[in-house]
Amino acid sequence: MIERAELHDLPEILQLQYLAYQSEAALFGSQDIPPLKQTLDEVTAEFQRGIILKMTEGGRIIGSVRAWEQDGTVQIGKLMVHPAHQKKGHGSALLAAIEGCFPGKRYELFTSTRSTGNLRLYQKRGYTEFARKAVNDELDFVYLEKLLHQNTGDIT
User: Fold this and answer.
1) Cβ(99)–Cβ(89) below 8 Å
2) Which whole-number Å values give the CA distances from 149 to 22, 51, 71, 110, 139, in the listed order?
3) Is residue 153 part of a domain?
4) Which of 90, 131, 98 is nearest to 113 (CA)?
5) Residues 78-124: pLDDT tens digits?
6) Which domain holds residue 134?
């Protein structure tokens, strides 16, 4: 089940974030990545600025994604699924659900060039690369966009 997160869900979502982003940290060879350093206050600020969705199974949060609109573009971030629940279509379902919260908009997100699984998911969902930014000599961030998606799915 996918629905809007509530304020009391944020600590559990943050714990999921710390777990889910371990694979990204391994790709970077460092625990010093922003998702692993984010605080509950910062997640609360994101909650107040936009929408955070949660995916639950058996009463536990197993996935989440967040987004906010800025200048006509929906910024999507922190798409995560519990490692034990990955490769089951949950990431794709969460991405479709967050798009449905902002129908008819331009969507933008980013990932690293090392995150090949993320890139495959985003491209499969219709996202195309529009920019790259070098992080260091070995790593780029890839910025992707999706234009005028008409999904009107309602999230409670």
Assistant:
1) no
2) 31, 18, 17, 18, 30
3) no
4) 131
5) 999 999 999 999 999 999 999 999 999 999 999 988 888 899 999 99
6) 2-146
